[in-house]
């Protein structure tokens, strides 16, 4: 007996779950889902079966055939893995768990009507990557165990549901359906309720399970793409305009990587508290509203989540220790799509921003070099705490290095074959390297594959991009250090990404007077583009400009995207002797906390505990 994944109780000697049928009764007033999960195993099993759960109340475990109770026990909670739900089976090939979620579920964010755009209805959504699916339903919560699922969602009639699955029906509740649930049949069939049904027939890792329930509206933007958001015409119109180019990107993806296997590619724009830029939930990508900027830059995030349809969702990292297989490949694939639809210069700019980010992560992890590796050891490590640009940008650099070695045509053929060979499989770094060496014989004599995948730091054959805009911006940033401000004519055609690259290439802190002069001229602290605004505010805090506290506070209360929370809170609390800023950070967090997703709450808390 041995665990197959450091983040899961799943045991190597147990059969894996192949299908899960879920029934959910959404009780918004108590922020609870009353549920049952019917798990089907790949083969009959006798003895203990280990399932992951976190913040769930288990009411009973039943033999689905006879409805007789099955013995079970729960381990003491582990701070990272949650609890092991140990069920005793005797030649069973399925098991039914009756349970309720709790308001503490780390995967779920429940929003009261006042926290939504329209302020009239509640809203709830999931974020399961990396190890939060277990806080929605009991499962073998490892990407090594791919599952199909079906779901019945019982919701208030004025709301609707979306999932990372095919929608099959919206209908009245049927008597008897709720009998085995903790809510009972009377509530299930009560006036004002209805049921939405979904199926996901393709095997996916549990972290790709997703739903959202709220007062949703939608607009078609392409033959297989519809954007959903809270039903507000202004939001929907802006989203539809921002994502109008999606079908073009799907076609480019198919040309580069093979057929799009998921039938639909719909997009859901979430409330501002969504903790990520995007999440690649199959058939229904989740997006932060901060990508809607009215200048088509949201396309980059969509290109990234779309690229996961091949790298990540078709081929999946076997455990989070091989996370670079998901994000490194996807960052590479994203940039290939961007290169076609937005041009080489834009792609080079993205590579440059990534290169800067990668170099910065080396400083962040200078006392913990393990997390500068592609393949990492994560026993006892919470994936949310070590989330970084390394798997994205070092992974990208590794693949880009291989591309340079073999040439683009050969690499493109290799990628297509890699995807066709491993689709719907979960793999590790070794399997990739074996495949690479078999298909590109001699590659290991040209590139130090072990150094790239197991070594710390940035290998010497990594590459800073060369392009006109990139070089120009980096030069201007270097001149700022010597006291020269960029001229109006030099920045006239700069969009958000140009400013982002510029700001990120400035020193960590500069003279406060320089910050004020830059802002007086270009109003960066008021930018509508959060990437620019946050990069500027971070620099302002580190340079000791306390006049921006008001703007920092507003930003931290407006958005819950961790890409913005992390640098702002870190800039406020790191270092010694700035007690006033630490107190300020604590107060703002106390006031904003309820608006953050539980994962973001945890991440901010761990920044505080590291620095205070
Ligand atoms: N899968 C990730 C988001 C994620 C990673 C969630 C790890 C939970 C744990 C997603 O594809 C992603 O990388 N999003 C980026 C988008 C960007 C690279 C364009 C983000 O959210 O910033
Ligand atoms: Zn990604």
General description of the model:
Helix content is 39%, strand content 22%. With 612 residues, the chain is α+β, with helices and mostly antiparallel strands. Strands 1, 2, 3, 4, 5, 8, 10 and 11 form an eight-stranded mixed beta sheet that branches. A hairpin with a 4-residue loop joins strand 1 (17-27) and strand 2. Helix 18 packs parallel to helix 20. The longest helix is centred in the middle third of the chain and has 21 residues, at 344-364. It is globular and about 80 Å long. The chain starts with 16 loop residues before the first strand and ends with a helix. Bound molecules: ligand BES and zinc ion (ZN). Residues 304, 308, 327, 330 line the site of zinc ion (ZN).
Oligomeric form: single chain
Fraction in beta strands: 15-25%
Query: Level of helix content?
Result: 25-40%
| Annotation, overall tally of beta strands | 19
If you compute it from the alpha carbons, what radius of gyration comes out, rounded to the nearest whole angstrom? 24 Å
Low-confidence stretches: none
Give the distance, in angstroms, between the N- and C-terminal Cα atoms: 41 Å
What's the helix count? 21
Q: How would you state the average pLDDT, rounded? A: 96
Structural class determined from secondary elements: alpha+beta
Q: Enumerate the distinct ligands.
A: ligand BES, zinc ion
Shape: globular
